[in-house]
Design a protein that fits this description.
single chain, 184 residues, mainly alpha, Rna Polymerase Sigma Factor, Chain: A, 2 domains, two-stranded antiparallel ribbon, 11 helices, 70% helix, elongated, disordered N terminus
Length: 184
Amino acid sequence: MNAVMDRSNKDWVIKLTKYKRNWIKMAKSLGAGDMAEDVVQEAYIRIMKWGTEDKLFLEGKPNFSYMYLTIRSISSKLTSIKSKVHKVALNNVKLEEYELSDEEKAFNRILEKVDEISETWGWYDKEMFQLYKNTKFSLRGLAKETGISWVSIAHTIKHCKEKIKIALAEDYKNYRNGDFHLIE
C-alpha cells in the first residue's frame, strides 16, 4: 500500500533532483561524456516508473548506490550503442584528389547528352520525362499526382526512351565496346 502511495506522490523525485550535479558527475565518470545530462534525465524517468521512496532514500538521505546502479545501467547501454557506430571526423580525413576514369567520364558524358536531348523536346514530353527520371514515383503514382492517365504517361515515356536510344545509339555502342575516347 505504501508503494502505491509513493508512485502517486513523486515529491521524493524532486528531492533527488537537488543532487543533480552529483548524478551528472557520476554519469560522466561512467563514460557518458556529453550525454551525462541525458543519462540523468533517463534515470529520473526510470525511477519514476519503477522506483519507490524507500529504495531511493535511506534515513532521509539519497541512496547513492541505487542511483549508481541506475545510472551505470543507462550509461553502459549508451556506451554499447556508441561502440557499434564508428564516427570519423572529416577534418582528420585526408581527401586525395580523385580523378575519374575514362569509363566514368564517358558515362557522365552520356548522361549529359540525355539531358541535352530532353531539353529540345516539347514541354509535355520534357516535363513527363523529367518527372519520371527525377522522382521515385511509379507510372501510376505519377498519374495520381498529375491527374493524367497512366497509359498516356507510359506512352510518352516509351516514346521519349525511343528518341534517346536513336540519338545515342552510336555513343552507347562505343561505351559498350570500351571505346570511351570516341564519345564526345
